[in-house]
């Protein structure tokens, strides 16, 4: 089934070249079924790249998904044109009276700042508060996961001695969770961050549960017991060359960064890395959409956030 996105979005050509069924708004208007309405709050500076990565993961399901792009207006985006933002993005004021089946909050390169010192923190917390009554299920990524688990549950982040960058092995800690249905017992996933949340803090919180962790990289997946909030502390959406580009960028700045771990063949940066996490990343998004959005969201979106809106574990 297709992914439904705005007409003329740059990601359209990329996704279609990969044989992904993309449905424009015009074509979707002539269908009677209700698509899942998913809001993407894109906090990354490279917005077009992130849009494409996320939409690629949302596309491989038998569901029609209508994507709406949201930006924070209290922060000036410098790596994307104003025309792109005005054409494809909306603001919180424009959507705050709407309801959505799902929402994704991306990461952002602001980890070393205290949450309250991020210039759009007040706007972000207002959106996160709004999501508790207007969104059926929210998926948080990397810094977005750290911000969400801090704001909703008070779990602190901790600065690492060195940047954690690479592709790491993980184990499934709760194999009964539909979120990891179909996962191998050991799987790989990318991380790129300077801070972490700790497994013991999540385990100690009665409203949270660990789903997957890594001996080397720490917590990867967690969720709220009520299945309203999902947290991925890595970057399952990353392309095969994303960590390479980050490494080259930081090296060019003279930051003295180490090679991303377990990423380049033979740890040789002259060799092109191969994606070893793509299948599980796809399965993660598909499971979230299927088990925690499609199968539980009210058909009538007006019921989202009411007593008639319930999810399962």
UniProtKB/TrEMBL annotation:
Q: Which Gene3D superfamilies does the record associate with it?
A: 3.40.50.880
According to its UniProt record, where is this protein located?
A: Cytoplasm
The reply to whether Amino-acid biosynthesis figures as a keyword in the UniProt entry is yes
Question: Matching InterPro entries, A to Z?
Answer: Class_I_gatase-like, HST_MetA, MetA_family
Q: Where on this chain does substrate bind? A: 163, 192, 249
Q: Name one GO cellular component term.
A: cytoplasm
Q: Site positions for Important for acyl-CoA specificity, renumbered to this chain?
A: 111
**Which EC number(s) are documented for this chain?**
2.3.1.31
Molecular-function GO terms, alphabetical = homoserine O-acetyltransferase activity; homoserine O-succinyltransferase activity
Pathway this chain belongs to: Amino-acid biosynthesis; L-methionine biosynthesis via de novo pathway; O-acetyl-L-homoserine from L-homoserine: step 1/1
Question: Catalytic residues?
Answer: 142, 235, 237
Q: Which reaction does it catalyse?
A: L-homoserine + acetyl-CoA = O-acetyl-L-homoserine + CoA
| Residues of the site described as Important for substrate specificity | 192
Name any Gene Ontology BP term.
Answer: L-methionine biosynthetic process from homoserine via O-succinyl-L-homoserine and cystathionine
Q: Which UniProt keywords apply?
A: Acyltransferase, Amino-acid biosynthesis, Cytoplasm, Methionine biosynthesis, Transferase
> What's the superkingdom here?
Bacteria
Cite the PANTHER family for this sequence. HOMOSERINE O-SUCCINYLTRANSFERASE (PTHR20919)
Q: Function of this protein?
A: Transfers an acetyl group from acetyl-CoA to L-homoserine, forming acetyl-L-homoserine.
Family membership, please give it.
Belongs to the MetA family.
Any idea what this protein is called? Homoserine O-acetyltransferase
Identify the coding gene.
metAA
């Amino acid at each position: 089934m297709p992914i439904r996105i705005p007409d003329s979005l740059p990601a359209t050509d990329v996704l279609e070249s990969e044989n992904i069924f993309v449905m424009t708004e015009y074509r979707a208007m002539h269908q009677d079924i209700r698509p899942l309405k998913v809001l993407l709050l894109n906090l990354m500076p490279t917005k077009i790249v992130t849009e494409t990565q996320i939409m690629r993961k949302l596309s491989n399901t038998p569901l029609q998904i209508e994507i709406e792009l949201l930006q924070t207006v209290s922060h000036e985006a410098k790596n994307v044109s104003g025309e792109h933002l005005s054409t494809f993005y909306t603001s919180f004021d424009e959507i705050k009276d709407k309801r959505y089946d799902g929402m994704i909050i991306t990461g952002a390169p602001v980890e070393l700042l205290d949450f309250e010192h991020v210039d759009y923190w007040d706007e972000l917390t207002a959106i996160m508060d709004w999501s508790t009554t207007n969104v059926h299920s929210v998926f948080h990524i990397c810094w977005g996961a750290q911000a969400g688990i801090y704001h909703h549950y008070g779990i602190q982040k901790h600065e690492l001695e060195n940047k954690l960058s690479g592709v790491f092995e993980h184990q499934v800690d709760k194999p009964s969770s539909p979120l990891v249905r179909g996962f191998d017992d050991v799987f790989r996933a990318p991380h790129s961050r300077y801070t972490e949340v700790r497994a013991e803090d999540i385990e100690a919180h009665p409203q949270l549960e660990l789903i997957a962790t890594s001996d080397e990289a720490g917590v990867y997946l967690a969720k709220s017991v009520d299945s309203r909030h999902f947290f991925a502390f890595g970057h399952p959406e990353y392309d095969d060359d994303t960590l390479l580009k980050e490494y080259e960028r930081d090296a060019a700045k003279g930051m003295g960064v180490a090679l991303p771990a377990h990423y380049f063949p033979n740890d040789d940066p002259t060799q092109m890395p191969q994606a070893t996490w793509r299948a599980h990343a796809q399965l993660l998004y598909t499971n979230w959409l299927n088990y925690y959005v499609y199968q539980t969201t009210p058909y009538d979106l007006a019921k989202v956030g009411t007593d008639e809106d319930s999810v399962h574990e």
